[in-house]
Description:
Blueprint: E1 4-5, E2 14-25, E3 28-33, E4 35-36, E5 50-52, E6 55-64, E7 69-75, E8 86-91, H1 93-116, E9 120-126, E10 133-138, H2 147-159, E11 164-169, E12 172-177, E13 183-184, E14 201-207, E15 210-215
Parallel strand pairs: 1-4
Antiparallel strand pairs: 2-3, 2-8, 3-7, 5-6, 5-8, 6-7, 9-10, 10-15, 11-12, 12-13, 14-15
Helix pairs in contact: 1-2
Amino acid sequence: xxxxxxxxxxxxxxxxxxxxxxxxxxxxxxxxxxxxxxxxxxxxxxxxxxxxxxxxxxxxxxxxxxxxxxxxxxxxxxxxxxxxxxxxxxxxxxxxxxxxxxxxxxxxxxxxxxxxxxxxxxxxxxxxxxxxxxxxxxxxxxxxxxxxxxxxxxxxxxxxxxxxxxxxxxxxxxxxxxxxxxxxxxxxxxxxxxxxxxxxxxxxxxxxxxxxxxxx
Length: 216
């Protein structure tokens, strides 16, 4: 049974869940529950950190298909509970906030660049702290990207207080920033672009039919 990912539609950092599976594999001790507040690593975003019943959660991963998957929580030690027992989850809010900001800023950068430079199309994002970047396909490798112009567009979009709306559809979860096109996404996001406070693109590299923009 696919795990109910509470973080798709809620910013809650705590929850109670029932254990569906527990065990150990080559990555360590793990549990799978009926629902979770822990973001599972994927889509360019690192997994949440926190504790389950006082035991540290080392990593969180998806198991299954993009549309139907379990969320596997890897723990620092075995959990002394059995199948069906209830457990308490707590996500580290500081880590979540950082990952959420960086992921949302990556989406916003993709949107403003797609709009300002039609020959560029965002296709992939990597939102890890210190490594953030968005990759674009390039229809015309003679395009001249103005970094100052892009940063001005980011500042304007952040100040516009654009709502960030998440929705569940038959094809999965989508996220929409203001009137920009909604896109499939499994990560966590701010409720409004104003929460980003600041953000900037920090360089672009164009090679062949690909462009990579770093940001922070």
